[in-house]
Amino acid sequence: MRTSFKLAASLLATLAALPALAEYPDKPITLVVPFTAGGPTDKVGRDLAEALRKPLGATIIIENVGGVGGTLGANKVAKASPDGYTLLLHHIGIASATALYRTLPYKTLEDFEYLGMVNEVPMTLIGRPDLPANSYADLAKWMAANKGKINLANAGVGSASHLCGLLFQQAVQIDMTTVPYKGTAPAMNDLLGSQVDIMCDQTTNTTGQIESGKVKAFAVMSSKRLTSGALAKLPTADESGLKGFNLTIWHGLYAPKGTPKAVLDKVNTALRAALKDADFQKRQAALGAVIVADGRVAPAEHKKFVEAEINKLGPVIKAAGIYAD
């Protein structure tokens, strides 16, 4: 018995001497945004990083890993150490990429831990400032008269604006010359400079340009009208004659597969707090984004939603014979 007590005391002394396991997080967290700095997803990422900082108790560092429609950044996170220190903020492209690309370096539904949805962002159809059209009806006439001459900008192959542009061409049944850029910012710069004609992009990137009158705005590509500022005057695509056209760009948060459940739970709890942060809500509202406040904030519902989006977008993209590679 005395020997047993001695062994127990010795074990307790040994455990007491070991350094305490660090509680997550004990160092900065990298949030990978798979697009260039200055674009709409980058704006959401930077706002979210600030909102997550307090509930997580850690610095959040944004790392922009642009290229190949967001797949480079997504792959970096899929291959990262599953310790919670490398996270991914991605948009609808994580779902559309499964159809846009013949091969992907990761499995969308298997190689990530789903942490929860963040927001939904309406798309807007805009044009160069000197485009001879002031309404969607005017634009439709101009497009019909300029078939084969229209330049449609996007933020890169596989981007949200690329997807919207592809679906828009299908809806109007007019082929356009698509001009891919390395991000939304350079695409917008050329639109402002009248180097390209039109672009379909997120309100996170177009609101300021629309409200300042620097671009022509023709429609919001979602099923409901927006309610703020100059955007409230925009008709929906459906109202403009594109019946059933409804596209919003949603954002979600992800971690590498195998990240410990305790870490996932802590990040999800922090995400829920961030989505209720008054400053974050104000910033998102100013960009026309709608914060997700339903069951999709939960990991399981988030993953279920992404799977449904894959099933919805895949047939449309494949039927059109559209591939990014």
UniProtKB/TrEMBL annotation:
Signal peptide span: 1-22
Record has Lyase as a keyword: no
PANTHER family: BLR1237 PROTEIN, TRICARBOXYLATE-BINDING PROTEIN
Listed name of the protein: Tripartite tricarboxylate transporter substrate-binding protein
The keyword Signal is annotated on this UniProt entry: yes
Species of origin: Pelomonas lactea
Keywords, ordered alphabetically: Signal
Domain of life: Bacteria
Similarity field: Belongs to the UPF0065 (bug) family.
